[in-house]
Amino acid sequence: MPPRFRSLVVPRHARVGFVGDPDSATEAWLIFHGYGMLAQGILHWFEPAERPGRLLVAPEGLSRFYQERNGMRTVGASWMTREAREQEILDQASYLDQAVVELIGEIPRLEVHGFSQGVATAARWVARGVRPVAKLVCWGGTVPPDLDPIALRDAVGGAPVEMIVGDRDKWVAPELVAADVERLNAGGCPTMLHQFEGGHRIDPDVLKRMSVAGSTSSTT
User: pLDDT tens for residues 70-126?
Assistant: First the structure.
């Protein structure tokens, strides 16, 4: 007989990294790492965004695994795979909702950043409209095609979604990001494209400008 399966909901531990003081912060950035990263790694990349009064919160993907990088065995995490996809999306939603309630709480201004695989997770969470989001920034990734552009627009109060990609990104082609920007704009979600010189990473210079001025300046 072929095997049968049941889906069980079980309690488990989830790890969330943060920088700053949740009790005194007046704004928060919710940051989603890329495939094979951990919360510590993405927070390191976001050091240029640190400043008094700002809380950086980085939930870590629930699926950790060993990987070989530069001849070393390291641990990384993933947000989801295509296996049991719908259940993993539900697990993400409840976990992230709890992380926001416990770490961000009633901090008035919330910005959401996603990098690489984390772009899809960030966009899905924002589009659910759990709480108002001032800005959604997508670094080196694309928004899931099954996401409603209008829901995304409404969740950010009509502010343009910002999509940023390196002109030499080998993992996510700049052309794909540009096509995604066109798709979202056509679907009614205002979206802006920004490019920088470099590959698949968070560009520190762009991040510094965003941190100070609230918007990027290297736009195409």
Answer: 888 999 999 998 898 899 999 999 999 999 999 999 999 999 999 999 999 999 999
For residue 5, tell me if it sits in a domain.
Answer: no
Say how far apart CA 148 and CA 128 lie, in whole Å.
Answer: 10
In a domain, 220, yes or no: no
How many domains, in total, are found in the chain?
1
Beta bridge partners of 114: 32, 138
Q: Are 32 and 46 in contact (CB under 8 A)?
A: no
Spatial CB neighbours of 115, under 8 Å, sequence gap ≥ 6: 31, 32, 33, 34, 37, 42, 45, 139, 140, 141, 202
